[in-house]
Amino acid sequence: MSASAIIFYIISAFILGAGTLAMTTRKIFRSAIWLLFSLIGVGALYFWLEVEFIAAVQIIVYVGGIVVLIIFSIFLTQQSGSEMPKQPLKRIIASLLAVLFGFGLTFLQIWRYNFQPSIKNFDLSVSKIGSQMLGTKAGGYALPFEVVSMLLLAAMIGCIVIAMKSPRSATNGKAKEEELEAIKESSDVEITINEITGT
Amino acid sequence: MSDVPISNILFVSTALFFIGMYGLFTRRNMITMLMAIELILNSVNINFVVFNKYLYPEKLDGIFFAIFIITIAAAEAAVAIAIIINLYRSHRSIDVEKASEMKW
Amino acid sequence: MNYSSYIALIPLLPLAGFVILGLFGKKYFKNSSGVFGCLLLLASTVLSLYAAYHYFFIDGKVGDTYQTLIPIKYTWLSFSDSLSIDMGFVLDPISVMMLVVVSFVSLMVHIFSLGYMKGEERFATYYAFLSLFTFSMLGLVVASNIFQIYIFWELVGVSSYLLIGFYYERPAAVAASKKAFIVTRFADLGFLIGILILGFQSGTLDFSTLIQRLTDRSSPQLLAIASTSFLGISLLTWALTLVFIGGAGKSAMFPLHIWLPDAMEGPTPVSALIHAATMVVAGVYLVARLFPLFHINEASLQVVTWVGATSAFLAALIACTQTDIKRVLAYSTMSQIGYMMFALGVSGYGGENGLGYTASMFHLFTHAFFKSLLFLCAGAVIHLVRSNEMKDMGGLRKLMPITNIAFFIACLAIAGIPPFAGFFSKEEILFAAWQHNPPIYYIGLITSGITAYYMFRLYFSIFWSKPHHSSPDGYRGITHHSEGTMSMKIPLIILAIGTILVGFIPFSNFISSDGKGFVSEMHLTFSTMPVAIALVGILIAYSLYFKQSDRPQKLAASLGGLYETAHRKFYIDEIYLFVTKKIIFNIVGRPAAWIDKNIVDGTMNGIAWTTGRISVLVKGVQSGKVQSYALYFFGGIVVLVILFLYVLK
Q1: Hey, are the CB atoms on A76 and B85 less than 8 Å from each other?
Q2: N or C: which end of chain C has fewer CB within 10 A?
């Protein structure tokens, strides 16, 4: 067992442990923090896989953006320290069984399949990513790139419209604050992504 | 890197996927459901990257998919938060069992 | 001139009247529907008269026989190559005669109703129903196919139901219309079975082919039907008797007569049209149409004769005791139709032998005139006095001079006094009876005496004897001093003239059992007996009713039980009620109702209840909880995955 294998197993144990705790803890803020750790673990896994670029994107966007967004919304909607109600036992058992069964089925397929790793070299450099992202020839991703930009715009506008308070009930200042926060969060995300992709 | 068999790495992603599913089924809070969805998306990302690196290293398609998935997950999380806030306004709670107006 | 160009219009014009007045009458024709209906019917009558003129005088006769013409025929429903139901028009002497009778009397009734039903709210509906009836009756008389006659038979029944129950707010009218429909429907069951037997045995439903196949002595169908027997009676007898039962129901023969007196609940012009001149003679017409078949089957002819004679006699007895003028007239109708029936029964076939047939049709013709006249006069009286009972009338001759004279003429006609129409036709009937079946002759003779008695009893009570209560102007209950509008008087005058003149038509030249006209003579010495008996009857009525006295009551008291039985219509209604209520309802009706309510309904309710329970159980799936949906979703995906991986390789 080489060192990288040991590191891999530690990282994966971290990911799975944090994930499980995120899904089972009763306090919501702790759940968010466990999620944070789990995502950091995934980033570490990317580092181990030598895809640094993706690791960086993961840390910046997921950890720094989305988890922060989630924490903000926790603050906005309830007391972060209080406990969440528990599900009925029937539901827990049913989901557990379903999940275990699904996992077994899927992993059976994966284990049986003989994956042949290729011996070619894997070279990931940012310049290659950049040129292919904006390339218009075969294998270029210019069109999806533009479409995703439109999607982000639509998402931003959509968030504003959905979370906007109707004029009738926009009387307390707290509502205005919520509105502003929502706008800020989405614009935060957009700025971050735009920075990364260099547009 | 090649002394960890691929199926082991895929074990991690599969397990993460199903942990996310369990959280989706079990959690009563809308925001925790959102967190579970993020876990699921992450597991899919791992899958893409692994397949790209080990099975088709001359191409970069898996990487791009991963990038786009991260982007879209961000957008989706934002919209989901907006919806949750809206629901919170009308129901004064983010318990998903309370938002059951679509029943018979 | 080609018949087919206009003959179809004769029944179709009233049908158009029914459709137009029925659909648009309430809105557009509120007051003019009467005139509209009359105009259509006038056109129909003119066409019928023209057709009759054409048929009888110009080209109907080939050699010395009147031909059966079929101008229009079209196959409606074809069961096999040989058996099909065709719709067609047949023109032979009796159908042309009936066209004239039906359309003419209907026209008179239409005109009379203009005045009688004025101010009625459902004026347009009334005329629509009248047109429907006229259409049905005209269709009945020109039917070329026995099934077609059955269709129109039922249509006539429906129209009669609608018209009897016209004043539907009155429970008595509703009950009467139901009774009429049910009794005739019950009789029609026999008719249908008879049709089926005849159609099956002869292989055809067309009248001329049917008659030809079953009367030809050498035809195989006749052999088959005559030799097959059921319960010891040949099939032909069964078929003809059943058909006659259908006719007896429609013609109110004993014992299916119970609906006719109750049918007087309808408006009086309706009674004049339906229950005097047209619908009730449909049974006689049917027997006449199938006469060649009846002639070869002695047994069914005997049934016809005796049923007719019994009805005539019984009805006359009952009519002597009734106090409602319309009921008296109803029983008198039944009696006269009995005459027509037994005239057919005693008839032979061919030339002079077929005198009974000719006499029956002649009596039908004249009876239409004087009976509808009687009913319309009664209508005028009822319109004035607002009551049907004889005790509310009396001494009306000064108030209603025209009605008085018309009624008198009609009574003379029905009593058989020369030279009015009834004398000629009755005399021929009695002569035919005397020739073939003397006991029937005696029954007919006595009945004509009784007929004269009760008709003049009615006449004197209405127009001559003073009213019972004395008040200054003598007439209590009369709200207006007018005889009726001009539209009510004109039909009376026309029909009265007809009653006087119609007797002189040499009927036997035109209508006879085999189509060949013959000359019938007047038997003067023979006729003295019936006339004498009639005069005796009139004298008795005069002595009892001309002036007000208590002689009628004393006579009724002295006859005691006999009078009471006749007054109660021989308890026939009570017998029917007993049979239906105690026997049929309890044994058949109640179990059937129980099965329907508990088993049939129970099954339906059970199915509905089960569906309800299942839906309550299933609706839990839609709980509105997103996570349950997610679980089901996931479960479905897993199933599909397993399916695709392992089952469908």
Answers
A1: yes
A2: C
**Min Cα separation B49/chain A (Å):** 8
ipTM given for this complex: 0.91
Please report where in the chains the tokens 């720094």 appear, as a residue: A64
Between CA C629 and CA C452 the distance in angstroms is 94
Residue bearing tokens 């008087």: C489
Residues B9-50 pLDDT 10s: 999 999 999 999 999 998 888 889 999 999 999 999 999 999
pLDDT of residue C613: 93
Cβ distance A98 to C631 less than 8 Å, yes or no, reads yes
Q: CA B37, CA C626: separation in Å to the nearest integer?
A: 14
The enclosing H or E element of C70 equals: strand C69-78
Closest residue, chain C, to B98 (C-alpha): C625
B96 part of contact set with chain A, CB < 8 Å = no
Two structure tokens written together for C26: 């309430």
C630 chain-B contacts, CB cut-off 8 A: 24-25
Q: Which amino acid is at A131?
A: S
Name the residue facing C626 among B26, B96, B104 (closest C-beta): B96
Contact between A102 and C638 using a beta-carbon 8 Å cutoff: yes
Contacts of A110 in chain B (CB under 8 A): 7, 10-11, 14
**Selection from C318, C327, C203 nearest residue C261 by Cα:** C327
Residues from chain B that touch A45, judged by Cβ atoms under 8 A, are 12, 46
Residues of A in contact with B6 (CB under 8 A): 115, 117
CA pair distance A118, A126, nearest whole angstrom:
22
B102/C622 CB distance under 8 A: yes
Residue C277: pLDDT band by 50, 70, 90 thresholds?
A: confident
User: E strands of C183-252, at which residues?
Assistant: 229-230, 233-234
Which among C631, C635, C641 has the least Cβ separation from residue A105? Answer: C641
Task: For C248, list phi and psi in degrees, rounded to 5.
Answer: -65, -35
Predicted TM-score of the model (pTM): 0.68
Q: Chains with ≥3 Cβ pairs under 8 A against A?
A: B, C
Q: How many whole angstroms separate alpha carbon C247 and alpha carbon C240? A: 10
Q: How far apart are the C-alpha atoms of C614 and C524, rounded to whole Å?
A: 90
Neighbouring residues of C329: CB distance < 8 A, sequence distance ≥ 6: C264, C271, C276, C371, C374, C375, C378, C458
pLDDT band at A192 (very low <50, low <70, confident <90, very high): low
Mode of pairing for the β-strands spanning C229-230 and C233-234: antiparallel
pLDDT per residue as tens digits for the range C29-78: 777 888 888 999 999 999 999 888 888 887 767 766 677 777 777 788 77
Q: Is C234 helix (H, G, I), strand (E, B) or coil?
A: strand
User: First CA to last CA across chain B, in angstroms?
Assistant: 55
Say yes or no for a CB contact (<8 Å) between A102 and C631.
no
How far off is chain A from B90, nearest CA to CA, in Å?
11
- Interchain CB contact of A70 with B (< 8 Å): yes
The answer to whether C625 contacts B96, with C-beta atoms less than 8 Å apart, is: yes
pLDDT of residue A102: 92
What does C271-340 look like in DSSP terms, one character per residue? HHIIIIISGGGHHHHHHHHTHHHHHH-HHHHHHHHHHHHHHHHHHHHHHTT--BHHHHHHHHHHHHHHHH
| Torsion angles phi and psi, residue C91, rounded to 5 | -115, 110
pLDDT tens per residue, range C112-135: 998 888 878 888 899 999 999 999
| Burial (CB count <10 Å: 0-12, 13-18, 19+), residue C111 | buried
Torsion (CA) C39, C43, C45, C51 in degrees, nearest 10:
180
The shortest CB-CB distance from B103 to any of C622, C627, C634 is to C622
Please state the length of chain B. Answer: 104
